[in-house]
Amino acid sequence: MEPILKRVSETPILLPELTSSWECAHVFNPGVIYHRGLFHMFYRAQGLDQISRIGYAISEDGIHWNRSRHPVLVPSYSYEAWGVEDPRVVEIEGTFYMTYTAYGPPQGQPTIAGGAIVPMVARSSNLIHWERLAPIVHGEDNKDHVLFPKRLKDWFVAVHRPRPWIALAFSKDLRDWPRERMVKLLGPRDDNWWDNVSVGANGVPIETDHGWLLFYHAYDRQRVYRFGVALLDPDDPRQVRSRPKDPVFWPEMAWEKFGNVPNVVFSCANIVVGDSVYVFYGGADHVIGLAVAPLQEVIDFALHG
Fold first, then answer.
1. Domain with 283 in it: what CATH number?
2. Is the CB of residue 204 less than 8 Å from the CB of residue 147?
3. pTM greater than 0.70
């Protein structure tokens, strides 16, 4: 079986910057948006202190990058004291939104569901300065959250991950996310070979003529991460129209199999440029790679497996 997504290079497109204090150890799990002819990357970075910060880089081709010397988001509150992680970026009605994971000591009364991993939403008018809005949930470990690129019936819609499921949340103002409106979307398949333990969303859902194309990641009992796709109903994304049994991408290169966390490909970005979908991903929680496929080929696979 050949992966649908094809790597643009046998080597990573972004490596740790050894002269930097904050990104000398690992760069991984980037969110990317294509805006005004440029790729804008927001990536998770760690220095020797192992605290995650979010760096920023720009590119004309998605392969060669100019990066900022300073991060654009750093831990600033107690609930993110251990790091800000895994950004995903989208533009909605002229405003940019970043969903990121805040990692820090649980706030308030501890719960059995955790609370150290918080799914946050922030916004910006210029992709540089970010204003924190609110978490999607409180009192549980929840992440892998990303916004749909437009309102649906006047609701902002977010995918998030109450382990081990992918779920949907709805909000009128991006601050209040009523629990009663949250619904499970898709979960692990016990009888399937690659996504039988846990699943989580990748990048921003892609609107197509056949529905919302959702890239997701999953791992099996050997903790090997792979990517899959699903199609959601165009009018009601709570309905899964199609979900092939096979993945579209998996670790093959040495820098995906060996690193800070082995056998991991993890994406926060699947953006459409021209007729292709560009999937940016972290390899083994250490470096960043890029794989590309014709969008129509991915849609055909999502429809027919």
1. 2.115.10.20
2. yes
3. yes
